[in-house]
Amino acid sequence: MDPHLLRTYVAVARLASFSAAARELGYTQSAVSQHIAVLEQDLGTPLLSRRPVVPTRAGERLLEHAGPLLLRLDAARAEIAALAGAADEGLTLAAASTALTPRTLAALPPTGATLRVLPRADVPEAVATGAAHLGLVDGLAAPNDPLRLADVAPLTTRGAGQEPVRVLLPAGHPLARRTGLRLGDLADARWVDAPGAGLPLHHLRAAHGTGGFRPALRYEGTDVRTLTALAAAGHGLVLLPESAAAAPGTVAVPLTEPRVVHRTELVHAGALRGPAAAWAARLDVTRS
Fold it and tell me: Measured between alpha carbons, how far is 225 from 214 in angstroms, rounded to an integer?
């Protein structure tokens, strides 16, 4: 299966338009139509209905395979380029916002680094495709347990630190005077769902082993200060690592049960070298 044809198909299916896909890819509309026709001929079945432009049942199944296939190809290209010395020798770090703890930030070099704050799920893909030399991902885990990451490509992970987690509440909240909180007692509370800036609610459900934790408000940004301001204004509870759980008008109460921590992991493809290796070494020093 020709990956160029597959990329064209993914673009058409995503945009629901042959002309829009042509503009995005820099092709003529007739070339896009020809790509789809050749791919359909190769697979022996229609992949798209034309009016409107929507995937057929076979096309939907192909889309499920296409993302991982194309990502693996991009990851292979990026790794070969790095081995050949064609990769940028600077340092680009992709990180989830809550993975940027004071310790990880202190390890950054004084010059020559680019920091990209991304949604947590996008960090491994950025590393796999060469968009970043290193990644920092985070999440809830039992102490010293590794995170469960999606298998997007052959990547190496290693622990970069862990710290306690705290529930952030408005200062006047009835639970603000507690010395500790159990997660099970908060399943029916009002929560802010902020997958890009805080610890996602599905992490809480997994830690608790049941449902609940329904959002009262969803925040789709990556700015932790905005998230803490939402908590201070009473829009819902927020779970954050201890180092980020401090804001005017809020109280950060330790989570005592279950016994979980905020874990940060370093993600990279292939062997570390140059500025990436130096940064990882500085990060290791700050852990000791």
Answer: 22
